[in-house]
Amino acid sequence: MMKFKWMCVAWLVVFWAAAAWAERAAVGVDLANVRSGPGTQYKLLWKLEKYHPIEVLQKSGEWYYFKDFEGDKGWIFRKLVNGDPSVIVNKNKCNVRSGAGTDHDIVFTVERGVPFKVLERKGEWLHIRHADGDKGWIHQMLVW
How far, in Å, CA of 2 to CA of 125, rounded? Predict the structure, then answer.
């Protein structure tokens, strides 16, 4: 009987861990439509730019139901996203620097909602690239 209880506990841990895990993806095209349902016949809700990260909640055929860093939810066609590591700025007026640390020069400043592809990680710093080619380093606390 004790073995059966441990098997049940182990199964529940695996089940809940899998349920809590959500797949991350990023928009892989310049501009992607977000729809109210899994198909082009559904209403266009908004558009996402390249590297915008999403958290896939459900899959339906060729469509992904997702949420973004603000908790907004919608459907996106699977072929418009990929597995590239990406982040989005979730704070206002963030400094992007020439190197991994506050002792490096500020290259540019970005606003909340700007997505980037992650090129490299050094500790708590991320080397990022925007779709327009701008590169720099940002602290992980400033992004989702």
Answer: 47
